[in-house]
Each structure stands twice: as C-alpha cells, then as structure tokens.
Amino acid sequence: MPHTKQTICDFGLHKGEPYTKLPASFLTWMIGTNHNKREYADAELKRRERAATNRLTVPSK
Fold first, then answer.
1. Which residue, 4, 9, 15, 53, is most buried by CB atoms nearer than 10 A?
2. How far apart are CA 12 and CA 51, in angstroms?
3. Interval 4-20: pLDDT, tens
4. Which secondary-structure segment (H or E) carries 45?
5. How far apart are CA 51 and CA 37, in angstroms?
6. Residue 26 · residue 48 · CB < 8 Å
7. What's the predicted TM-score (pTM) here?
8. What is d(CA 15, CA 48) in angstroms, rounded to the nearest whole number?
9. Is the CA virtual torsion 11, 17, 19, 24 positive or negative?
C-alpha cells in the first residue's frame, strides 16, 4: 500500500493516527530501528521537508 494522506499508523502509541499527524521523533525512530513500515515514515518525513522548503507540487486543474 502506498503512503497517502490517509495512511493510518496501525501499531503502538500512535495507533489509529494518520502518518501526517505523527511526531517527527516517532517517524525518525521507525527509520532508525528499521521498522517494517519505515517506508511510510521516510515518505512522510520527505513530504514534510518538501512542504517546509516550498517544493510541493500543486496539481494543475
């Protein structure tokens, strides 16, 4: 399943929360511990970086 704005964390303290709402520290922990869903964490951190640096693409109408 690809990472989307609706992708929900299904484990631990943040179970039931969308990845877009998870703390960066939790996402970093997922990557650092080689969690089996680290791809979701990596994708979300990269999305946040693009947003912070104004590199999000806006869909054309």
1. 9
2. 27
3. 668 999 999 999 999 99
4. helix 38-52
5. 22
6. no
7. 0.80
8. 20
9. negative
